[in-house]
Amino acid sequence: MKIWNSILQARQEINKLKTSSVVTIGNFDGVHRGHQAIIKRTLELAQNLNSLAIALTFVNHTESLLGEAPFLLNMPLFRRELLAKQGLDGLLEVEFTQNLALMEPGAFFETWLVKGLNIRALVIGYDFRFGSGGRGDYQLLKGMADEAGISLARVAPIQEEGEVISSSRIRQLLAEGRIEKANLMLGYNFMIEGEVIEGEQLGRQLGYPTANIRLRPEYLLPCYGVYLVRSFVENDFYFGLANVGIKPTFGKSHPLVEIYLFDVEVNLYHKVVRVEFLRFIRPENRFPGPEALRAQIARDVEIAQSLLKS
Question: pTM of the entire structure?
Fold first, then answer.
């Protein structure tokens, strides 16, 4: 998958290849099953029209300018990996600026899509809007596409157990600790990624050495608690526990993720670890002291290992 950081780069590549494109547009935060359905339709049309399948997305979430930016489900690198796995030919990933936010729908359609990406078809989600003030709705877009001789496909929402799959619904499920349903909506396991940093060795003192992961504040953490996880380190992976929270037993207040790996001790300091959340075990609690916490961790390990066996 080619990655372009400006419309000029993308246009030059398309012109060089003497081809056209089928484009879909969105934040694609989560690249969940709803997004995957949109991309699948993009790929189908691109194949039928002998064109490139391209996603146009943004480095920063559009709501960072239009409203209140949500906590993000994916870091940029992982989002790119997920989009590449869908089979796209190109990703145009640009900053969502004030100029873009204020651009009239017709100007955006003509400048970015028709002239910039030489589109033959456009694929959108059921709730897609664009242009200044969100005035570019489906009806307006349909009129512009028809006039330009461009196909327009609108993909219906995908549901899970009667609920529409959306990034906002997945965030809510994660906030409630409903990791399994969130994973079903995502179509993969929710994950976080970060560098392992020096901690206070509190877990080691309890007999359960943990690794503390440095987190960027704009990315979502699931509900505070203990989870069964799978951690990827370089070319290996390990099952274990993750504690998400503030360590109330030890009077901490800054949110962190710490992982304990089952049956193995690996030096993780300064390595980047990717942690997949598989099952929610219990909420974070304050314990009377270290001994009570040690006993609870032993129970957590037993529960997690029984889940793995089942």
Answer: 0.92
